[in-house]
Specification:
The structure is a homodimer. Chain A is an alpha/beta fold. Chain A is built from 16 helices and 15 strands. In chain A, the strands form five sheets. Chain A has a five-stranded parallel sheet with strand order 11-12-13-14-15. Chain A has a four-stranded mixed sheet with strand order 2-3-5-4, with helices on one face. In chain A, strands 1-6 form a two-stranded antiparallel ribbon. The first copy, chain A, is elongated and about 85 Å long.
Chain lengths: 494, 494
C-alpha cells in the first residue's frame, strides 16, 4: 500500500462543502441534547405551521444527538466550553415559500451566526434555512472525545450563499432497456415496457413520494423522458410509436427511434407530456435528444419518401430537428421550460431563449461551453463529471480540480452557466453498488460547484472530505473510503 | 446506454463455475420443501456425528427453500415433473476428514448424479461433498414460475473435480497503516499499531471464528505477515524493530523496513511466528517480502557498517536476502511451509523446494511464470487478477479470458502452477464497497481457475454469470450488475 495525501486537520474542521464565505474564531461551544433546541425565531415568517421546517428540525436534532448517543459523548463534564442552547431559524421575507417547490430562481441564500447562547440562522426563504441547517450540522465535531458535540468555528460565523448546486435531482426515469414510469394515460407503457410490470415500476404514489421527499430537503426533481432515441422500451407498449427498420424491401422486425413522420406520434407525445407536466411540479422537464442513430430511419422507405417531400435530401439531422421542433412546441403548450442534451443545439434546432442546454460530450468541453453560451443559451455542464466512468485511485481529485468557467467567453457568457451536474448512468450500477460509487465522489463535485472559485487546496479538501465521508458512514450511508483509513464508527451493512 | 452482450440462456442453465465435466439430459425434477431431504448415504463414512456436514445440510436446505418461500413458488401443481426427494451424501473413504482442516493436498473431488427419486453425491472426503452440494444448488432454477425448484440438468449428471481453486482465504492481516492482529505474545503491537486498540482489531476469538467459519465451508485460511517492508504499524508497538532513517548524520525520527542487523529482530520474529504457527492451523504461512524500499537502509550508518562487514558492497538486495533467509529458517522451525511474493525469488534468496512463489507483477507475467517454474518452484498466479484495479465496463471479461498456463515452459513446469488468486487490496476498499467490488468479478476468476481450459465461451459465461449474480443478490449479497438488467428480487440493502 502506498501513501498518497496525508490528512492534516483542516482549519475549517469538517465543513463540506465549504460555504462561499466563512469567518472563523477560536471560541467553541458545547451542545447538550437535554437543553439544545432548534426553534423558530420570534420574527420568523415561518412558524409552527410550516411543516417543512418542523420536519427538518426533528431530522437534524435526531441526527445531531443520535450521533452523540452512539458515541456516548453526551455525559458532559460540568466545566468546559460554555453552552449553546438554541439554533434560531429566522425566515425574513413575507412569503417563506414553505408550501411551494424549490425552483431555478429560488432564493437559497442564508446567513448563520453562532454566538453564545444562541445561534441564529437567517434566510429569506425556507430553502436557505435548509441549507444553513446542514452547514450548522457540518460544523459539529464528531470526533471530539471530551465534550459531546461542539460547534467548532464560532463567535461569528457568517455565510452567504448565492449559488446552490446539488439541489436538483435529474431523474432519467426511462431508457432503452426499461420503461418503469407508470403512466396513468398510457399504462401499457410500463405494463409492456418495464422489466416487470409490478416489481420494477414507479407508481404514481412512488413518484409523489420522491418529489415530496425531495421538496422537504429543498431539492427539485426534473424528470427526463428522452426521445427520439433511447426509446426501445417505449415501443413495447405503444404500437407504431417507433420506426420499423427495414432489411432490403421488408421490415426486419426491429425498431429504431421514434417515428417522426406520423401524426399519431405527435398525438401521443401531446397527451403524454400533458400528463408529465401535471405529475412533475418543477417548471422544467428534460427532453433528452442525445445519441440518435440514423441507421433505421435510412432503411425505411416511408421515411425516405418523407425526406424527399420535405427537401431534407440525405441529411437525417434535419429529420431529427423536424421531430424535436414539433416536440418542443408540444411541451411549450404545457407551459414547461425544457432542458435538452447538447446534440439538439449542435444540430441547429430552433430553441426558446430560456432553453437549458446540457453539455455532456468530451471531458473538458470548453469549446462546446463557449459555443452554447455565445448563442445566448443557459447551460449546465456535466461533461467532466460522469461518475459512472470509474478508474483506479482517487478520481474525486479529478472532479474537484475542474473549473467549469474555464472556457473562452465574455463575462456575460460565463453568467449563462447556471450549474453543473454529476451524472451516474446505470449500465453498471444498481442498488447493490450505487451508494459507494456515488459518495463521496459526488461530494467533490458539490464543493466545486458550491464553494468559491479559490477553494482549490486539495490537501485541505482531502482532510475535510475524509471527515465528511465518515459522517455519512456514521449515518448508515456506505460512502466509500478516499484512501486506507478508518472511521470511529464503521459501516455495519453487509 | 449501449447494449453489449445479450444474455441468451445457456444450455448449462445457471451453473457457475462450470464443473470439469457435465453431462446433460432433458429430464427435470421437482423439489418440494415438505418432502425434500439432504441425508447421509447408508454407506457413508461420515454420519450424524459429522457436524461439518450436518451444518452444511441445514445451510443449504435453508438456502434452497428460503428462495422458494420468497418467490412463493412452493405451491406446486399436482401434475408436472416427477419429484426428487433426497440428496444422499456419500463419503467413500475411511477417513472423511470431517474434523480436520482442508489443506493443499486435500482430495476435493466429487461426483454428483441426479436420478429420480434420489440424487447421489459421492466424494472421498467431506471437502468434495461441500463443493458438490454447491453444484447441486447452482443447478436449481430460481426463475421458474411454475414449479418451485427444479433440477434443470439431470438424468445423469456426473462431475469430477480435481482442481479446486477459490478454496483459500489469503488474509493479508497487517500492513503499514495498521496492525489489527491482536497477538497474545506481543499485545502492544495492536495496542499501539491498530487504528484503534478495541474497535479495529481482530481478537484471538475473532481469528478462531474466521478459521472455523472457513473450515465448515472447505476453505483454508492462510495469514500473511509481510516483512521486512510494509511494517510501519509494527514499529509503533515494538521499539527497535524498524530501521531508524537518518537525515545526514542524525536520525530523522522516521523509520524504514525491519532492521535486519539486530539480533533482537530475530528473537522477536522467532517468538512471533511461533505464535502464528499455533494460531493458524494451515500448513502454510505467507511471509510477504514485496516492495522493500532501500532508501532508509542506505541512510543509516549502522546498516552501512554491517553491509561492509558482510561484504555486500552497495547491493542492498543482498541485505534483503540476508534478512529473508534468516526469517525463512525461523519459520521452518515452526514446521510451516511458506509462500512469498515474487521479489524474494527474483532477488535470489535460497528457498526450500516446497516454497510457493506468488507472482503478482505485470498483468500478464508470462516471463516470470516461466522463470519461477523453470527453477522448480510451485507458484500461484495473481498478476492478471488484481481486482482493486477497477475500470469502466465489463472488466470481468478480461479476468475471464486469461489463460494461466499460457507461458513458455514444459508440461512439468505447467504442473507447478498450483493455483491462481484474485487479490483485492484495501487502499480504496472497506466494508462500504467491498462486496459489490468483489462479486461477481471474483466469480469470473473462479470459473477460469475451476473449469476446464476449453470453457471459454464468453456469451455463455455472461448468461450463466448473470443468473449466478442474481442468485447472490437473492441471498442478500450485493453483487454488482454485469450490465443493465434486473433480478427478480433486487438487493434490499441501502
Amino acid at each position: 500500500m502506498k501513501a498518497e495525501l496525508v490528512a492534516q486537520p483542516s482549519k475549517y474542521g469538517s465543513l463540506w462543502p465549504l460555504p462561499q464565505k466563512v469567518q472563523l474564531s477560536e471560541v467553541s461551544f458545547k451542545l447538550t441534547s437535554s437543553s439544545f433546541r432548534i426553534v423558530d425565531a420570534k420574527d420568523s415568517t415561518a412558524g409552527p405551521s410550516c411543516s417543512l421546517l418542523q420536519d427538518a428540525y426533528r431530522r437534524y436534532y435526531e441526527y445531531m444527538f443520535g450521533i452523540a448517543k452512539r458515541q456516548q459523548l453526551n455525559k458532559g463534564r460540568r466545566t468546559g466550553p460554555s453552552e449553546l442552547t438554541e439554533l434560531q431559524v429566522w425566515i425574513t421575507s413575507p412569503d417563506s415559500e414553505c408550501d411551494s417547490y424549490p425552483s431555478l430562481t429560488s432564493d437559497e441564500s442564508y446567513e448563520l451566526s453562532v454566538n453564545q447562547p444562541y445561534a441564529v440562522l437567517k434566510a429569506p426563504k425556507v430553502w436557505g434555512a435548509l441549507h444553513g441547517s446542514k452547514t450548522f450540522l457540518s460544523c459539529i465535531v464528531i470526533f471530539n472525545f471530551i465534550y459531546c458535540l461542539i460547534v467548532l468555528l464560532s463567535s461569528f460565523i457568517q455565510e452567504t450563499m448565492a449559488m446552490n448546486k446539488i439541489n436538483v435531482f435529474h431523474w432519467h426515469i426511462v431508457d432503452d432497456q426499461s420503461f418503469p414510469y407508470l403512466s396513468r394515460t398510457f399504462p401499457q407503457l410500463s405494463q409492456q415496457g418495464a422489466y416487470h410490470p409490478y416489481t420494477h415500476v414507479y407508481t404514481p404514489a412512488d413518484v409523489k413520494m420522491v418529489i415530496e421527499f425531495a421538496r422537504l430537503r429543498g431539492i427539485r426533481v426534473i424528470p427526463e423522458f428522452d426521445t427520439p432515441g433511447h426509446t426501445q422500451s417505449w415501443g413495447k407498449g405503444q404500437p407504431d410509436l417507433l420506426t420499423p427498420c427495414y432489411s432490403g424491401s421488408k421490415p426486419s422486425g426491429t425498431f429504431g427511434p421514434v417515428n417522426p413522420i406520423l401524426n399519431t406520434t405527435y398525438d401521443f407525445m401531446s397527451q403524454f407530456f400533458k400528463e408529465i407536466s401535471a405529475v412533475f411540479p418543477d417548471a422544467y422537464v428534460h427532453l433528452g435528444g442525445d445519441e440518435v442513430d440514423f441507421t433505421c430511419w435510412k432503411s425505411n422507405p416511408d421515411i425516405q419518401k418523407f425526406m424527399d417531400q420535405q427537401g431534407f435530401g440525405q441529411d437525417y439531422s434535419k429529420l431529427e430537428s423536424f421531430y424535436i421542433q414539433k416536440l418542443l412546441d408540444i411541451v411549450t403548450t404545457t407551459e414547461k421550460g425544457y432542458t435538452i442534451w447538447q446534440e439538439v443545439f449542435d444540430n441547429g434546432v430552433k430553441l426558446k431563449p430560456d432553453t437549458v442546454v446540457h453539455v455532456w460530450i468530451g471531458g473538458g468541453s470548453n469549446e462546446e461551453m463557449g459555443k452554447v453560451t455565445a448563442a445566448g443559451y443557459t447551460t449546465i455542464l456535466s461533461a467532466p463529471w460522469y461518475l459512472d466512468y470509474i478508474s483506479y485511485a482517487q478520481d474525486w481529485q479529478k472532479y474537484y480540480k475542474v473549473e467549469p468557467l474555464n472556457f473562452n467567453g465574455t463575462e456575460a457568457q460565463k453568467k449563462l452557466v447556471i450549474g453543473g451536474e454529476a451524472c451516474l448512468w446505470g449500465e453498471y450500477v444498481d442498488a447493490t453498488n450505487l451508494t459507494p460509487r456515488l459518495w463521496p465522489r459526488a461530494s467533490a463535485v458539490a464543493e466545486r460547484l458550491w464553494s468559491a472559485k479559490d477553494v482549490t487546496d486539495i490537501n485541505d479538501a482531502f482532510s475535510r472530505l475524509s471527515v465528511h465521508r465518515c459522517r455519512m458512514v456514521d449515518r448508515g450511508i456506505p460512502a466509500e473510503p478516499l484512501f486506507s483509513s478508518y472511521c470511529p464508527h464503521e459501516y455495519k451493512g453487509i
